[in-house]
Amino acid sequence: MLRRLTRDILTFDWSQSQPGAAxxxxxxxVLPLAIGVxxxxxxxxxxxxxxxxxxxxxxxxxxxxxxxxxxxxxxAGMCLSSWIGTWGGQFAPxxxxxxxxxxxxxxxxxxxxxxxxxxxLQCLIWLIISSAYPASGLHALTRGSxxxxxxxxxxxxxxxxxxxxxxxxxxxxxxxSAEPAQASASTRAVRxxxxxxxxxxxxxxxxxxxxxALPSGYWIPMTAAIVTRPELQHTFQRGMARIxxxxxxxxxxxxxxxALRPLxxxxxxxxxxxxxxxxxxxxxxxxxxxxxxxxxxxxxxAMVGAPAxxxxxxxxxxxxxxxxxxxxxxxxxxxxxxLLDRKRARRAPLHSG
Length: 353
Description:
- This protein has 14 helices and no strands.
- The chain is mainly alpha-helical.
- It is globular.
């Protein structure tokens, strides 16, 4: 197991890299960041850029025969999830319940193909992020509206680039077809189990982050959501890669912050640099992608005044907690399911007699 985890972390599949696609996604980040810095509204620029960044990964996805639909559906879903999360964040039990529900939907989407799964994960992530910044009334619509604007900008610019070059981004990652419409009873049972597991895990992770009241504690349920997978082995692999990547990214961001003490313009350049690296590496090596993502987040938050060393410390600690919770929770659920199956198997001969 350890040898396989090490091999996965150290293996780079450069055949999956798409430098052109990575560059295509960056203009939608440049515009809101530049406008935000120039007008003295970096926070609004950051929110729009964050929405554009997430939707950019949709250019690597497909939903049915459409390449634009994943970006459009994700943009709408992220906006709606952000609105709901911002409002629900005022009430701890509501936040826990919403996290469980969105987690179950995400697990259900696993069987509908990678495009649907990716969309559901983005919605879950933005629900979790927004719940950490609760607001009521019209203020609850602010973050989601900027995310909507950034997502629509990304989709428009990527679509324009595709029309200009006549070459859309290739679908990234391993191909996986959607589950047939007529699923067997056993398949449906497995699907319900997975949904229950992920829903319970997200509820526990959100409750833990609220109970501990850790700074930036929303990274605990977010990490748990991102690394959990249908199979236990894949959850462990993803979790270890995420943790290793986060530690490396934290070290890199720390060195850069200490060496440069960057001004806002330099911070924006670093955000774009690491965002481009994320797009380039997302299907090449997950640990390297996680390292670049950590640096991207650190410098993005630094643009609105969050001290880089503090952000790095909080993100690292919460990522470790979320990754460990996902792995241990999945293992415990699998063990419980096997125990229940054995009990049912022992009862079966009695009932048949």
